[in-house]
Amino acid sequence: MMSLQMKTYKQTWELDPPFIIAGEVWSSVDSLIVELVDDFGRTGRSETQGVSYRGETYSSLAAEVEALRGEASAGMSRETLQALLPAGGARNALDVALWDLQAQQTGQPLNKLLGLGRLKTVQTVLTLGIMSGDEAATIAGRASAFGQLKLKVDGGRHIEMIAAVREARPDARIIVDANQSWSFQLMKELMPELERLHVDVLEQPLPVGGDDELEGFISPILLMADESCQDTGDLPTVRQRYGGVNIKLDKAGGLTEAMKMSNEARSLGLKTMVGNMCGGSLAMAPAFLVAQSTDYVDLDGPLLQTSDWENGFCYQGERMFPSDRPLWGKLNSAV
């Protein structure tokens, strides 16, 4: 097996406007970029933000990755990597870089190597952070090219924003994401209003560790787990409480686990979404492969930023597809 030289650096993306969710505000995001270079100079790249609610930061991710420099030099494989690191942003960074490297070494796009066939254009949601109803209505009204809108809410700011968006966009499918900020009682109180406003999905309403109250609850709206489901091992519990799961490569620990998780979730009868932790198109690219078979796609990270990678993904309204000059994995909409 070839030895691999490892390079890491920080890429900071500015967000405009600042992105607000329950308990967090971001004006910028720091991505860890990893490059793995083989003996012939072929390079596999990745971008990860980690999982902030689990305490992951750029510094902690960089330290975890750097600790495996020796293993990389000895010729680390994806299979050995799964045992070296737990699920999370650091394993994601290395796993995704190894997948990209395989594409560069074989000259084949990863969709073909994975048996996915020709890539399909996907329709991503547009995410609105927590804001006033008037602000949300204005943005939603201007976003007529997006048929699905995800609205971030918290325990005190919810129905006003949802109602304003529904009035501005009677045609849109609405996903509400509470990011663990509701109590079971509040969720039950708001459910009739959510039904009246034709909310399609309610994502992670209750805190991790407190969502056991959902067992036995019959929801008129699809409940989707995010923070409560990190990887495949969480799926048996999740299916007792939710009807769907949001798969993120940073949570799962890479494309390898995310693809496994997507297949297993569907086999259990769960609806699937592929999501993101913000970041540029380099972070979206491997998730785009997962998006080929999910029910919902939330890969609008680059649209929340003031800039993106050269040769990043093309967004024509909600339609998302790779550029003609592949950024990662030799992904190309023509093959």
From TrEMBL:
Ranges for domain Mandelate racemase/muconate lactonizing enzyme C-terminal: 133-224
Keyword terms: Isomerase, Magnesium, Metal-binding
Its EC number(s): 5.1.1.-
Pfam families: MR_MLE_C, MR_MLE_N
Cofactor annotation comment: Binds 1 Mg(2+) ion per subunit.
SUPFAM superfamilies registered for this protein in UniProt: Enolase C-terminal domain-like (SSF51604), Enolase N-terminal domain-like (SSF54826)
Co-factor(s): Mg(2+)
InterPro entries, sorted: DgoD-like, Dipeptide_epimerase, Enolase-like_C_sf, Enolase-like_N, Enolase_C-like, Mandel_Rmase/mucon_lact_enz_CS, Mandelate_racemase_C, Mandelate_racemase_N_dom
GO biological process terms, semicolon-separated: amino acid catabolic process
Presence of keyword Mitochondrion: no
Binding site for Mg(2+): D177, E203, D226
GO terms for MF: magnesium ion binding; racemase and epimerase activity, acting on amino acids and derivatives
UniProt-annotated catalytic positions: K152 (proton acceptor), K248 (proton acceptor)
Family of this protein: Belongs to the mandelate racemase/muconate lactonizing enzyme family.
Database matches in PANTHER family: D-GALACTONATE DEHYDRATASE-RELATED, ENOLASE SUPERFAMILY MEMBER DDB_G0284701
Name used for this protein in its record: Dipeptide epimerase
Originating organism: Hyphomonas oceanitis SCH89
